[in-house]
Design brief:
Helix content is about 70%, strand content about 0%. By secondary structure, it is an all-alpha fold. It has one domain.
Amino acid sequence: MPATPLLAAAVISYLLGSIPFGLLLTRLAGHADIRQIGSGSIGATNVLRTGSQRLAALTLLLDLAKGATAVVIAQRWGHTAALAAAGCAILGHMFPVWLGFRGGKGVATAFGVLIPLAWPVALVTAVLWMATALLFHYSSLAALVAAVAGAVLAAIVADKPTALLIAGIALLIIARHHANIRRLLAGTESRISLGKS
């Protein structure tokens, strides 16, 4: 495809992905800098550590929406542009230029890009994430299970370029959870509560 639409899809998607909703929402709500508590991430799990489940849920939805929106916008330029958009939205969330390239771990945004790209994969990974989180109360473990399962399922049900992209996203998510993996192995990882506040 022509380079201009591909570049446009990449830039728009990176900028959308880089909007730090968790940081913005917690600041608007009067909380301290979300990067100074918990894991230091800007994602929904760390927002949950402020004690506000409503803010965490809104962060989750907005991070998911920005991923889905990026792909939907790019789909008008074709499948290659949509794949580029998906990858760039994830990179924008993980490495936002506005925050010195220190962002979130990309889980919600990954769910978002999967919805228009490969909805069966999105559905299965979302169910697995929720089931793992409810059973073990570790958001990081749920993310890792969902990432691995998504890559495996995509290899079965998606076209090769899409499957390769999803595998790449899974590897990025796993890499971003390196500290969580160490804490899980050491038994020191923080648990989450999904019950009513």
